[in-house]
Amino acid sequence: VLTSFIEAGENATQDYLGQGGLRRRIRILCQLARTLNQVHAKGLLYGDLSTTNIFVSDDSKHAETWLIDCDNISLEANNGLTLHTVDYGAPEVVRGDSLLSSLTDCWSFAVIAYQLLTHNHPFKGNIVNEGEPEEEEAALRGEYPWINDSTDFENECFANLPIQLLEHSRLTELFSRCFEQGRVQPIERPSMAEWLEALSETDERLVICKKCSGHTLLPQDWQPDSDATCFFCDEAIDKNLVILKEFIVQPEEEHSSTDSSAWVATGRFVVLQENESLELKRLMPTFLYDHFPDEHIRIEYKENGFGIHPLPETEIHLQQGGTNKRLEKYQGLRNEIRGKTNDPYWLHVGSITEQHILWQFTW
User: What is the pTM of this model?
Assistant: First the structure.
């Protein structure tokens, strides 16, 4: 049950890392967000969402996630429900002012996400921890600011893991929107699609520390000569990374697809460390994320070099300088040629005569 992930013990940081660290938690939340996004897309709501009705795989190497008590699911337009679990009900539901909806699901998800990532409840700060039981009830009714409110520091909290763990992601902005504007105006809460996209992007920029096995989120402007260190142990970040930056290419009559003036940077980049492999996908904040194999490509970074595996039905061109080669089978780049040139490589995924995705990297 997911509850076991948010119960901070005496060695909270070691427990955090031992349970799979930041990456496993992000992937659990990705799966949960994808499921809830599908539910909401069908005009349904889950209802009583809490850590007690979310199951995850036992093995810390996996992040499979399941929702139980599916009899909670109902049509949003005709639910008539106010049932909620303490700590996870949206303020308007706790006050008795509103019924359950997809917006209350989004609130519950955000509370779960914040607890899972930091071991803190977003509304249990100084006011609650140092006050009477009535203060906690008031906080859950939305009468006090959240613990990282941008303008009101009355209920701040410095226990467990700080939100700075996520400072280079869009997640911090989504939490602020949900717990500040969304506390009084439910319509301002981020949708599950927004959470899914932000979580997926975060997963792609995590780097594991070889010393403590903790995960650190790289900023978008990270460079190999950066002095960035591990969030958990201050060990220098592995500099021997492959960074892949995403562009959208829109060929025009006056520009070919290999002319960088026809490229638009999406701001997304993916990190690959040695002994890792992954499937590059065009980022889509819906369940369709996995349903476009003609825009997917599998890459690997092994001991002997960098490898590119075209997937079935995928058209891929590998370009460097003026050389452009269509890949129809595995293409490897040996370690011996790494750093021999400053010219980047470009992977065109899709027909180069039409709009397509391009990944830029150096080797």
Answer: 0.91
- Mean pLDDT, each 10-residue run in order, the chain (363 residues): 81 88 96 94 94 94 92 79 93 95 97 96 96 96 97 93 93 98 98 94 95 94 87 93 93 63 88 94 58 76 95 90 92 94 92 91 95
CA distance 25 to 51: 13
Please name which of 93, 91, 193, 107 lies closest in space to residue 142, comparing C-alpha atoms.
91
Distance CA 324, CA 258 (A): 9
Cα 59–Cα 36–Cα 2 angle in degrees, nearest 5: 30
Helices (H), 119-184: 126-129, 133-140, 171-176, 182-184
What pLDDT is attached to residue 9? 67
Q: Which two tokens stand for residue 42?
A: 């069908």
CA 121 to chain centre: 19
Backbone angles phi, psi at 290, to 5 degrees: -100, 5
Distance CA 26, CA 9 (A): 21
d(CA 45, CA 90): 14
Q: What are the two backbone dihedrals, phi and then psi, of residue 198, each rounded to the nearest 5 degrees?
A: -65, -40
CA distances to 190, 308, 329 from 181, in Å:
10, 45, 51
